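BUG-593 | component: ligand-complex export | severity: low

The export step for 6-O-phosphono-alpha-D-glucopyranose jobs runs without errors, but we want the raw record kept on the ticket for reference. Input record follows.
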Amino acid sequence: MCGIIGYVGNRKTTDVLLNGLYALEYRGYDSAGVAISNGKVEKIIKSVGRVNELEKKVDKDNLSDSIFGIAHTRWATNGEANINNAHPHKVGKVTLVHNGIIENADLLKEQLIKDGYKFTSDTDSEVAAALLDQALQTTDVLESIERVTEKLKGSYAFGIMIEGDNNLYALRKDSPLLIGIGDNENFLASDITAIIKYTNKYILLDVKDIAVLNKNSVVIYHDGKEIQKPVQLSDSKGVDNTKNGYAHHMLKEIMEEPIVLSRLIEKYANAEDLAKLDLHDYEELDIVACGSAMYAGLVGQNLFEEYANIKVNVYPASEYRYKKKIYNQKSLVILISQSGETADTIAAMREAHELGIETLGIVNNPDSTIARECDRKILTNAGVEIAVATTKAYILQVCVLSLMTYITAKNKKLLSDNQDYSCFEKLPALLKEVLDHEEEYESIAEKLYKKESCFYIGRGIDYALCMEGSLKLKEVSYLHSEAYQAGELKHGTISLIEEDMPVLCIISDKNLKDKSISNLKETEARGARGIIITTKDLDDFEGYDKIIVPTTSMFTQSMLIVPALQLLSYYVALKRGCDIDKPRNLAKSVTVE
Ligand code: G6P
């Protein structure tokens, strides 16, 4: 993944670069570095760990008259997270930062070693730097960059500095990078939030574009010729980094769910807007996404099939890319993504386009690749999420899918008279009630946090909720957990049940209540300790630890259950002393395959 920023202008270069890196930390946070230059001397400063570790070093080691620089925050792909592998990488005259994966780096490296190059890191990025340095020995910069890109297989976004040259160079393929346009200053960045403090004007780069930036100009070349590209305006508000008094961004973002939900629900109370969510023309939907977004898709699948009579397939984008696709004229591919930059989801969208299939994106980031390229887009408008584990954005994805089901079923005349929009309008207040019971989640977390493993079980839509509950717990607390279809457990996995192992059983569908509870009892007969998550009207369970949420319609019920599971995960992670907002090994936006 990794985040890239570059700056040339009159501001204090290290301030702009560090501010940008903080905004980009969601893309990776295992090491960071900057390269700055005053036109004569170049300095590279790197550190392992978060950007604040880098900031400490930069403060001590500042090149105060620097006029341009590049910086990077890393999520390790090639080579472990150590100081040598941290970017920028310098080889000969070339210093660069890289996001992406160069798939043929080993082969290229072999030849470069034969040619006399020595490498100090395990990264593919250093190979690209060496290739460019080699090319520069025989030709000019633009031609050299072109020669290098012809040799590279894989994905990249590069920010480049060259000794003796006061320009910054930028290019990309399948990894995001944009050019920010200021007054007497210019930027490059993985996304607009990194530079929105300074400018909202930007240019998008296409494959084979090479941007040359200095203080006064940005020139884009394509196939050796200067080209003009449109300047776009972002209405991003930037990242609100404050926690509003909460201990963690994750908790703050969970607590924002009622407000962001009510905004969305108010918008679609308008019949004209709601009509845009109607999918009654389609016979089959493929929902393609990753992680929590895919689990939101699973909730959508249950709703669409049950209430709108539309067949739905849900695929992880990484699998969908390489599977045979079977479509009919009335198929729609729905991409769900908070960031709109997930590499696999973008690739899936482009595959669908190549096959001539219509796409619809449910996206949170309005400036993202998916928001720009999908045929139709629905913005969730959850605001920026800072905690790596998604909470409010997931809830809004579910809400959009639920609203889609509702209006599609309504237009197909599949709803009964008492199924109206009021269940959505009442939802935010009910959700506030759910979030008000923090002590209940804490007390169940107390019973879970010392365990090594647990299960989430449920049937139908409840299984979809188990998937998200279990993922959230794993992500933030590192407690191993598995989500299982309640009825499937006995076909092998029940062998893992041990004395006192927690089994969390979700029961929101009254038609499946008795079946699920029988499956829970099967685990209890083998020593498990059942915990029930259910609704007020279904609760007649004696002798269990329970989480009870208000009863609402099946269109909205999941949006009361999952927030309770999010809070439970939060408190388990808190008691286990985890780094809740930035769990180990993760990144918020996964821009590599
Ligand atoms: C990463 C995040 C997950 C997220 C997934 C999909 O793995 O850690 O929380 O669900 O990416 O991200 P997207 O931005 O496409 O929703």
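Assignee comment: Attached the raw record above. The domain at 3-233 is CATH 3.60.20.10 (Glutamine Phosphoribosylpyrophosphate, subunit 1, domain 1).
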